[in-house]
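Box 4.2: Ligand-aware structure prediction
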Amino acid sequence: MYDSIVIGCGFAGAVVARELAEKKNKRVLIIDSRPHIGGNCYDRKDEYGILIHQYGPHIFHTNNERVFKYLSRFTEWYPFRHEVVGKIGGRELPIPFNLNTLDMVYGERALELENKLISSFGEGARVPILELMNHPDEDLQEIAQYVYENIFLKYTMKQWGRSPKEIDPAVSGRVPVLLSRDNRYFQDKYQGIPLHGYTEIFEKMLDHEGIDIRLNCQGTDVLCLDPEGDVKVRFEDEPFHGDVIFTGALDEFFGCCYGRLPYRSLDFYFEHYEKPFYQSHAVVNYTVSEKFTRITEFKYLSGQLDMKDTTIVKEYPKAYSGSKGEIPYYAINNPENDALFEKYKALVDQIPGFYLLGRLAEYKYYNIDAIVERALDLAERL
Ligand code: UDP
């Protein structure tokens, strides 16, 4: 009955499903274990009418014109300018640490330090904190130490349970020291929030006669593998000859037979306030204090600035244990975990027509744009 089965209804799965149905005339079944489409980008109006991101803030940004154009088929954009501040010592300082932050921290010394930074790295450079820490100049080391202690160390300890020096350097490298006066969190050419929310993108993307959606359904409820048989995949107990695009956690699909792949999870605590605004920016990072990492105030993201009250969410990171209802958000990439992932991947590499796609299934820290591009590429190849 189906040509392709897609497991997981986030961006990876939804884009692939749409492309296979639309461009390749496939009959596609997309399933998801949750009761809604959209994966972690799912958003909805809360009981006060404020559009909340149920699984934490998602701010779209990309330099990839193909991806931006593709998503623009399904949405208009609220041209949101995302600026983040860190609550540090009673002040709010721009993050990423940039030349404006430098002025606020170093006052009269800032100009001399700015000249040093720029002559070492160049104007507009994006310098990972771990790289700045290795610079031989004493003044630059002093800045690096300040940034490390006030922006990275405690936030990263909360987020990952490890210091920035103990985790994949690419993670802290996502938020470099920025040698410009651009206070935006992202410098990409295209950025914004879907005008009517992310969920509407998914509704439109999946609204195609070739696509069936099944929610509240686990991959393992409908699929099983039979590596010994002639046909390797069985769908609802019948041999399945089509493609399977799997976007879930690979270890769980195999019953964690080699042990659990470590992920970080988050607890979200939503709060509603009867006042127009809770904080100064959409996202405020708590880089030195508190148990949560950041607070997001949603009306900034949705543009509902005239609402008389406001909803926020606090993010409390934790280890993912796999217990019911818990969600794996971030792969913890290090040589040991990546090797374990490769063991699981080897199990599916032998299965023709079985493809892994996205943050969970590929065990990588992808942004939305990277996932959309990979999904477009995969659908094109199939
Ligand atoms: N980070 C930090 N302090 C900050 C912002 C980020 O230490 O104020 C580090 C932290 O390790 C975090 C990583 O940089 O996990 C990547 O941050 P990003 O904002 O990209 O994380 P995401 O929004 O994907 O959770």
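In the box above, the bound molecule is uridine-5'-diphosphate. The two ends are 18 Å apart (CA to CA).
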